[in-house]
Design goal:
Order of helices and strands of chain B: EEEEEEEEE
Shape of chain B: globular
Oligomer: heterodimer
Largest sheet of chain A: 7 strands, mixed
Strand content of chain A: over 45%
Distance between the termini of chain A: 36 Å
Order of helices and strands of chain A: EEEEEEEEEEEEE
Number of strands of chain B: 9
Helix content of chain B: under 10%
Number of strands of chain A: 13
Strand content of chain B: 35-45%
Distance between the termini of chain B: 39 Å
Largest interface: A-B, 31 and 24 residues
Structural class of chain B: mainly beta
Helix content of chain A: under 10%
């Protein structure tokens, strides 16, 4: 029972390079999310996918693209990395952003991955 | 949007109860209060959530005031492994969106 798995755990890029962060969940969750966390800051939502086939912007989407490949997988792509994108990235999933019988209607309970630490030089 | 206010840091003696406060005076009637924690640089971990009633699970208790403008997370017997940043969250953004926004949280230090 792996939960939410992120790869890679660490990555160093040069400015202008591209890369994709991968995320997979094995809990049959409908909703998936990408957050970033900068030193001393809380988590900020980049993009989310309420269900398979849909994606929406969060608080800080500029410079990123996402793909909900299937129900299990949600990837985050940096097309042209910038030093400002140096951060720790967390993927998360939830049964449904609208809650469930387990959590309560409207209760969106997230399960997070271990994080991917990205450094852009 | 409902936002939360938490003290930046707190200390607690090992074995004692840790009481972490949170103000959310603009919370809407259908918004849940959630608590997560983040140990060092790991991914955040869900602790508990509640709407109106007090809640308890194997990790903690959540006490919500009657007017729902504040809440307290209680760790009944804090251990050194409870040292972490604790986030109190309510749903933000517009109608139809259920995304959670994490603030800076409270850094809890459990002291031997």
């Amino acid at each position: 029972n792996a939960g939410v798995t992120q790869t890679p755990k660490f990555q160093v890029l040069k400015t202008g390079q591209s890369m994709t962060l991968q995320c997979a969940q094995d809990m049959n969750h409908n909703s998936m999310y990408w957050y970033r966390q900068d030193p001393g800051m809380g988590l900020r939502l980049i993009y989310y996918s309420a269900s398979e086939g849909t994606t929406d912007k969060g608080e800080v989407p500029n410079g990123y693209n996402v793909s909900r490949l299937n129900k299990r997988e949600f990837s985050l792509r940096l097309e042209s990395a910038a030093p400002s994108q140096t951060s720790v990235y967390f993927c998360a999933s939830s049964e449904s952003q609208f809650g469930s019988w387990r959590t309560g209607a409207g209760a969106n309970v997230l399960t997070f991955g271990a994080g991917s630490r990205l450094t852009v030089l | 949007d409902a936002k939360t206010t938490q003290p930046p840091s707190m200390d607690c003696a090992e074995g004692r109860a840790a009481n972490l406060p949170c103000n959310h005076s603009t919370i809407s009637g259908n918004e849940y209060v959630y608590w997560y924690r983040q140990i060092h640089s790991q991914g955040p971990q869900y602790i508990i959530h509640g709407l109106k009633n007090n809640e308890t699970n194997e990790m903690a208790s959540l006490i919500i005031t009657e007017d729902r403008k504040s809440s307290t997370l209680i760790l009944p017997h804090a251990t050194l492994r409870d040292t972490a940043v604790y986030y109190c969250i309510v749903r933000v953004t517009g109608a139809g969106s259920y995304q959670l926004t994490f603030g800076k949280g409270t850094k809890l230090s459990v002291i031997p």
